[in-house]
Amino acid sequence: MKRRPVFLLTVLCFGFAFFYVPILSMMVYSFNESRLATVWGGFSTKWYVSLFSNRQVIAALMLSLKIALVSATIATILGTMAGIALARFTKFRGRVLFSGLVTAPLIMPEVITGISSLMFFILLADWIGWPGSRGFTTITLAHITFSMVFVTTVVQARMSQADRAIEEAAMDLGSRPWQVLFDVTLPVISPAILSGWLLAFTISLDDVVITSFTTGPGSTTLPLLIWSKVKLGVTPDINALATLTVLIVGIGVAIAGFVMNRSDARRDADARLAYQANK
Amino acid sequence: MEHSSRLSRWFDRRGWSDIIIGAPYVWLVVLFLLPFLIVVAISVATKTATAPPFSFGGEHPLVNLQGYQRLLHDTLYLRAFLTSLTNAGIAMVLCLLLGYPMALALTRVSRSWRNILLMLVILPFWTSFLLRVYAWMGLMGKNSWFNALLTDAWNWVVPVDWAVKSIPMMHTNFAVVLVMVYTYLPFMILPLYASLERLDPTLDEAALDLGSRPSRVFLDVTLPQSVPGIIAGGLLVFIPAAGELVIPSLVGNAASPMIGRVISDEFSSARDWPMASSVAVALLLLMVVPMMLYSHYQAKAEGEAGK
Amino acid sequence: MSAPDEPFLRIEGVSKSFGTFQAVRDVSLTVAKGEIFSLLGGSGCGKTTLLRMLAGFEEPTSGRIFLDGRDMAGVPPWSRPVHMMFQSYALFPHMSVEKNIAYGLKHEAMTKAQRDDRVREMLDLVQLSQFAARKPHQISGGQRQRVALARALARQPKLLLLDEPLAALDKKLREHTQFELMSIQARTGVTFIVVTHDQEEAMTLSDRIAVMDRGRVMQVGSATEIYEFPNSRFVAGFIGSITSFEARVTGREGGQVVLEVPALGGRVLARDVPGVVEGQAVTLALRPEKLRISKDRPETGNAVEGMVKDLAYFGKDSLYRIVLPSGALVSAHAVNARRGDEATRVADWDDRVWLSFDPAAAIVLTE
């Protein structure tokens, strides 16, 4: 007697159309012959060719990837430390301020984070002469700061689910606290650390606002390049770039989903094995 | 062990935990708290023609509240705040109206479909934010197929006198709200889905069994229990939308800027650091209540999840 | 290094408070080498806190702990020759059974061959050799329990702490595992300290039991001592079931005390308790299985007439609830030694019966 929720499913379909029609339209138009990005002028792959021969785009992509790799890695180390600290050390001096500092960048309007970082870097250069010019270093520092708290959130959530007794067990069996960290804690939360890294990487790769404030002459990341191009209107090679991004991300997510499904299936099989062993 | 050195004993007892707490703590204090305090300090400084362009001397030593006074008197700022809050508010409500049924529908489909659909909700989030804004620029432009479709529909519905050649969508607040709904909708759906998915389906059945109609079951059982999800999702849309800079700069109306644009312009074009800081502090004060609400409900939602 | 009369484990006036909450209050205990010793009590009685102080996870607020003559104050958990089997087992989920057991050995000065030998020996001990390569989530609950035991024993601790070792197992497995634990303890000779809330578990496993309540040790003794000779109303009520009555000592007669028990309608003779004086208010406690039910008044012992109010048939025995003229209710067990239908049982609803008990069965409690 289960009724099909017709209204809900209709809204769901509409919602997914809303999500994907603009993206699909963009992908179709990336193969448009016409220079006018919104008028169909026949099939062509020339925008892909022009994209790959555009040194500016390649240089911006490389810079973005470099910043994302470095900042995601450092953000993961710092963010994991903060997550462990908040989940494990319930009492330490300044904990309230610390947990505030870990939440604030998550909900701080990006403009404010951007402006305050820029003012800080300018004043710092004025006081101690460093950073001499803004670019890779300042962007990376800013990205680490606001992406590490995402890692912290993920790690802290995982830590609070983990059985604390396994760390005590390792200590009880003769390991010092830092050995426990490397032998037990980090391996157990490694999936959370990995997804934290991916999150930090994506956030860094995607950021416009904070990067636009902390960048300097000559350091144009891919989002900054796209922004400056798009401000002038729709251009077909951006369609091509967007199509490639969506495809790469889509394939990545599909593989991740497949792997996760497989490990789910493995876990089910293991559970059956354990059940049979029990009998 | 008895032969271990004092250093290693210190490290085992305190050192390692001090490092784990200390490193991120120091980082955040230096690169987040300190810059933020600088903004607060500069908001009460005086604009000068020096570099950096402010000082704490002059006519108003130390505390100069002119920036804050201008906020209240100059209608530019008031209008910008109003535009921001209205756009963000409308986007939040639309996200809720569209996102709630979607989240509810996701809890009703079969498990294998659910995982695929959830992935499809999250997928746009992993693609570039700028490119998602850009996709709508293509659709809203005067010559696009989407605009032509809407124009035809409009001309078919309204009297001939009202017919238009194309619908002016780009560079309007409508465009800003539309794109905000588009880019922030996943932020609404995911917390809503999380809070709806946890509901015990036997509660629904119990209410039906006690004689409620399905519509009443929704109002009496489902809706009240999803309030933390609604609030978390709503604020997750509202807070970044109110401070949005990219969307209005690409599809918005330059004549009625949102507050993010005002801050950025005061800073870069006018080189008025104290004013930019005053506006930023004011925006933050406006956001403090929603932010506190958010962390409260977030903690509450997590507390329930932990049960 | 220790004096010959020094006990293996000595807990001396140990207290522990968390803020204003006193979890453990002034506990003193001694445990002999090779003993299985249980800490028994309800939740929040302080037994787990005491165990965690032995493991080194908590430091006592006051008092001292000596293990094999060595003061354990300030010794961190990783340097104590004490290992623990956690209630949740706390197996390392990312390591195989073998690696779990070998984990503690990496801190020992041994060659790889010696280490492998020890792991094999432990796997044999708990009969898990064929599961060595499996991960913890690939084995059953009972097997996990044995891995946890093997892991804790691998480093040959002086003291093994077991936190609710059987609580996570289902009833059938529990009985079997109890005996297995005892046989492993006998083979290894390691001193066991078991924390449990389950009195049956404590009574079967242990050489001696400490009953705890609200942070204090109420009584220490063998299972028999605690059951037959409880020293307080709390212990008597916590272990097994009792019916208790207010009483007053009126005198002594032939090595027995004479009690005036209003609820039983008068005089009751009980085994003498040293230290009670005439006129003292005491509690008389009776265990259901020590009471006899009969149709006629028995010739010897204390007896009182009553009426059957309730009876519950359990198969091997039945529980009767008998209401006395004073209005008091007494529970009594009768073993169903003879096979037969309802007609053959000792008494039925609303029957008038005599309840009787030996003076030796009457427990007189002053606290």
Explain this structure:
The complex is a heterotrimer of chains A (279), B (307) and C (367). Chain A has a single domain (6-238), classed as MetI-like (MetI-like fold, Orthogonal Bundle), CATH 1.10.3720. Chain A contains 11 helices and no strands. Chain A has helices at 6-29, 46-52, 55-88, 95-107, 110-128, 136-161, 165-172, 177-206, 209-214, 222-231, 236-278. The mean pLDDT of chain A is 89. Chain B has 307 residues and is mainly α. Chain B has a single domain (70-306), classed as MetI-like fold (Orthogonal Bundle), CATH 1.10.3720.10. Helix content of chain B is 76%, strand content 1%. Chain B has 13 helices and 2 strands, in the order H-E-E-H-H-H-H-H-H-H-H-H-H-H-H. Chain B has helices at 6-42, 66-73, 75-108, 111-126, 129-140, 145-157, 173-197, 201-209, 214-225, 227-242, 246-251, 259-268, 273-306; strands at residues 46-47, 54-55. The mean pLDDT of chain B is 87. Chain C has 2 domains: 9-237, 3-Layer(aba) Sandwich (Rossmann fold); 241-365, Nucleic acid-binding proteins (OB fold (Dihydrolipoamide Acetyltransferase, E2P), Beta Barrel), CATH 2.40.50. The longest helix of chain C is centred in the middle third of the chain and has 18 residues, at 171-188. Chain C starts with 8 loop residues before the first strand and ends with a strand. Chains A and B meet through helix 1, helix 3, helix 4, helix 5 and helix 6 of A and helix 1, helix 3, helix 4, helix 5 and helix 10 of B.
Rounded to the nearest angstrom, the radius of gyration of chain B is: 26 Å
Mean pLDDT of chain B: 87
| CA-CA gap between termini of chain A | 38 Å
Strand content of chain B is under 5%
What fold name stands as the CATH topology of chain B?
MetI-like fold
- Give me the CATH superfamily of chain B: MetI-like
Overall CATH architecture of chain B: Orthogonal Bundle
- Could you give the order of strands across the largest sheet of chain B? 1-2
Q: Using the coordinates above, name the CATH class of chain A.
A: Mainly Alpha
What is the overall silhouette of chain A? globular
Structural class of chain B: mainly alpha
- Provide the domain count of chain A: 1
| Total strand segments of chain A | 0
**Main sheet record of chain B:** 2 strands, antiparallel
Which structural class best describes the helix and strand composition of chain A?
A: mainly alpha
- The string of secondary-structure elements of chain A, in order, is HHHHHHHHHHH
- The CATH superfamily of chain A turns out to be MetI-like
